């Protein structure tokens, strides 16, 4: 099978594109023909080995996992001898956890991971973004932020994979939503349902005072220290990229009632919890409360280019790698 291969840490050009043997599924695994794989910032961390803390998972000196890519959608082509609940030709989507492996034509996935059959009434292209932005934004807002009707919520990085989902999920909970993005994406963020849009090139939201119940930084471009005064007295600052001040707040002021900051490792939650979140988000797709923001799609040989785009901090929506000729495979 064709795959990307990463044997050393470095820039986007370290990937090799080679042919290797197709994996054979173990007794509790399914072999999936990958249709699309998500390009996320985490994949770039595993390729570059930066920040250094990432090497605790990816390998201290060189990458332990040679084939990157965590989240995927595709068709089951073979099943292990002990597999139940899945069948050949099922369309599935999910995460392979720290085993990675989605940047390849085929991936062997243990069914104990967060893998789920694509409902027949939903498009596989639309459920894939639920894995990246959806099951990050939902627990951050619902569990950490304790979001409720009437809350004033600011989403920083509102045009990205997590940010775009966060806008729509916050509107589902009947919050008043302000999105922060660049000039080029103001119209996109407005179309997602944001009540207000701030162009960060023209206005600094951290200069506001006592305005937001929740500030959700989905891109790690702000800080709690600068954003604190924009929070209401009982407000909370949550971020996907924890800084030392956020970590201190989370450790020592977790149950505080006044202004505070917090984070969570959403990707490390148990697979069954993720699957329940996916079911919840699928229902929002059905009700049209979620309309996935599809971003750029690249082929496998453009993986480095795709990661450069994601790492630029200006990506729009969900960025993917296509591993198939979709017109031929969907006939």
Task: Spell out the blueprint of helices and strands.
Layout: E1 2-5, E2 16-19, E3 29-38, H1 41-48, H2 55-58, E4 71-79, E5 91-95, E6 106-110, E7 115-117, H3 124-144, E8 152-156, H4 161-172, E9 176-181, H5 186-191, E10 196-199, E11 212-217, H6 224-227, E12 231-239, H7 244-252, E13 260-262, H8 271-286, E14 294-299, H9 303-311, E15 318-322, H10 326-329
Parallel strand pairs: 8-9, 8-11, 9-10, 11-12, 12-13, 14-15
Antiparallel strand pairs: 1-2, 3-4, 3-6, 3-15, 4-5, 5-7
Helix pairs in contact: 3-4, 3-8
Which key terms come to mind for this protein?
single chain; 331 residues; alpha/beta; Quinone Oxidoreductase, Chain A, domain 1; Rossmann fold; 2 domains; seven-stranded mixed beta sheet; six-stranded parallel beta sheet; 28% helix; globular
